[in-house]
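Z., the sequence and structure:
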Amino acid sequence: MNLLSQPVAIQGLGCVGGFGQGGDAFIQALQKNVDQPQRIDQCHGDGQAYYPAFLAQTDGLDAFVAKRSLRRLDHYSRLALLGGCLALADAGIDAEKREHIGVIVASGYGAAATTFGFLDSVLEDGDHCASPTAFSNSVHNVAGAYLSMQLGIHGPNLTLSQFDLSVTAALHNAVCWLQQGRVDTVLVGGVDEHCAVLNYCYGRYFADEQIPQRIEPFSFEKQTAIPGEGAAFLVLSSNPKKARYGYIDALCGGHIESSGDTLIQRSPVLLGADGHRNTATWYRQSIGTPKTSCSHVYGSLPCGQAFDLAAAALMVRDQHCHALCSREEECAPIRQVTSVKCAADGQFGAVRVTRGFG
């Protein structure tokens, strides 16, 4: 691992997914082993069988943002806004203290549902009658823009998309901003949404597979991925006194075959394995015992590592392994957790969360 010269404090976190809203709901779902997805009525219109998914609700967002400001926001932006609001509230940062916060949003799919909706309006009504609201909500940085505009954040704003490694890239940029002194606080996280086209793709790509009932992250020989959606954000600070959930003290990336030895450590490895067989080879090679996973609760989505980092922060705070463990014995007390996310080509990103440093 590449140790940071100045560890970054995790001041707060917020998440919303198929398990509910907030860190407490996330822990409860992990402890109760809640892993049953919903059956949804979304298909491509050609009669394909419905595919299960972990869907998230944004009820309660109006407690943070005025209802009239939410009228034109799509589901993707609402997810990001709710995750960001929960994180800032958890960090105790009120509206008067948000002006100089940086914002970094990571997403693999982006505003896919809205983008396809805009294309449908072009095909059905022509260019002159295409939906302007759908167009404005389909642009690359829409979620980050709404976070800044609705929450009064005037710091730098960035949106990154590197599919499975989007969250790792976002963390690298957040650490750079803090180390350079551009800002002293960064709201960083990931958001992805489910849509009918994704449901169709799952049904077609895995037509020869039995539809899974639950994600089995350690059954590397099986295809058990179930799509999910949601958002998870961290509030990072350069002030070590604000570390309510420990610190991010190491980052690394590369290819598993050439850099896998950097993952050797005594603490648990929180794998981003989410049931996709095409990444199984690489997760087998990631070193660290015991191996743990949380994907069976939030589903399969490119920004899943954002949820893993939230889980790592909660586990370090509680010194307890809330995640599903590959070994029967309990891996506690937890003082360090390394989140590892692998892409299909063997590239990986690793982020270590630790209880203390020095």
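The chain has a mean pLDDT of 88. The two ends are 16 Å apart (CA to CA).

Let me know what you think.
H.
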